[in-house]
Each structure stands twice: as C-alpha cells, then as structure tokens.
Amino acid sequence: MRDVIYLDRMEQAETLLKPQRVEVLRQLAAPSSCTEVAEVLDQTPQRVHYHVKQLVKAGLATQVSERKVRGVQEGLYQAVARSYWLSPRLVGRIGSRDELALGHLVDLAEQIQVDVAALDRSSELPSIGVSGEIRVLPEERQQFLTELQTTLQDLFTRYGGAEGDAFRIALACYPKGEDR
What we know:
It comes from Lentzea flaviverrucosa. There is one protein chain. A hairpin with a 2-residue loop joins strand 2 and strand 3. It is elongated, with a radius of gyration of 23 Å. It has six helices and four strands; from the N terminus they run E-H-H-H-H-E-E-E-H-H. The chain has helices at residues 10-16, 19-27, 34-41, 45-57, 102-118, 141-159, and strands at residues 2-7, 61-69, 72-79, 81-86. By secondary structure, it is α+β, with helices and mostly antiparallel strands.
C-alpha cells in the first residue's frame, strides 16, 4: 500500500467523491471481504460489492486474494493508498495565471502534490520543509518581493548546473488572511 495516490483523472474523482465509497475505502485499509465491510457499515454485501467494484475499476482499491467460504470464492480487497490527493485541475479555475496571482499558488501547490506523491518513501529522502511568517509594511512589500526574488535567482544560478541530484524548490508567499 502506498502512502499517497495523486488523482488527476475525473473518473477517479467521481468514483471517490461519494460518501459511501469513502467509508468503504476506509474499511479497506486492511484486506477485507465485502461481507466483512458490509457488517461494519451496516449495509448489504451486494451494495458494498458494487462500491468495491467501482473502486477497483478506478484504481483506488485492488483484490489482494481469495478464500473459500461455505463453498464460495470470496475476494479480499484493499485500498491502494492511505491517502488520496485530488488535483485542483479537476475543479478548474477562472482567471489569471500570472505569477503574482493566487491562481499561480494553486498551480504550485498542485506541482508539489504531484512530486511528493511520486516519491519513494521506502528510503531516507534528502528533503527539507520550512515554514514561517514574515511581517512587511505595505510600503516595503515591493522591496521585500524583489529581494526575495533576487536571493532565489542567485541560488538557482549558483546551483543550477546540469550535474548532480535534481531538487525542486518551491516558495509560496501570500497574505496570511484575516490577521495581516
């Protein structure tokens, strides 16, 4: 089972975004039969089987084994991931894609989700996450943004050669919200 699966196909999102299927998927954290899941969710096995088949078809769950119960083959199913991230592109966005627009931050956040979901977490990964808050007076905003851009451009120039391990650097700078 993977930690994260990134969903960027509408069929997957439509399959996942049904409350009953989310509950079925939660029950499939460990291999389970439709009958076992039905008992926990107080549903009929047929109804759970329908939802499980839809989850399997969308690639969100898989059949991991079979067993014989009272002379009938019964499938055991399991979710393929612990978490599922939906692409913001599935919802769509109207407006500017300018690098100073908030829509650009949504694109950046999506790229980070795609990259992180694809990482192999079975080994130690050289990565760093930094978060902080900086307070800038309105009259100093442009100077701050220019200095930040210059500093990052210097790093990109200094370490931007064609050799070595590739790292993605993403920085998001946005108003904090109500408490500006």
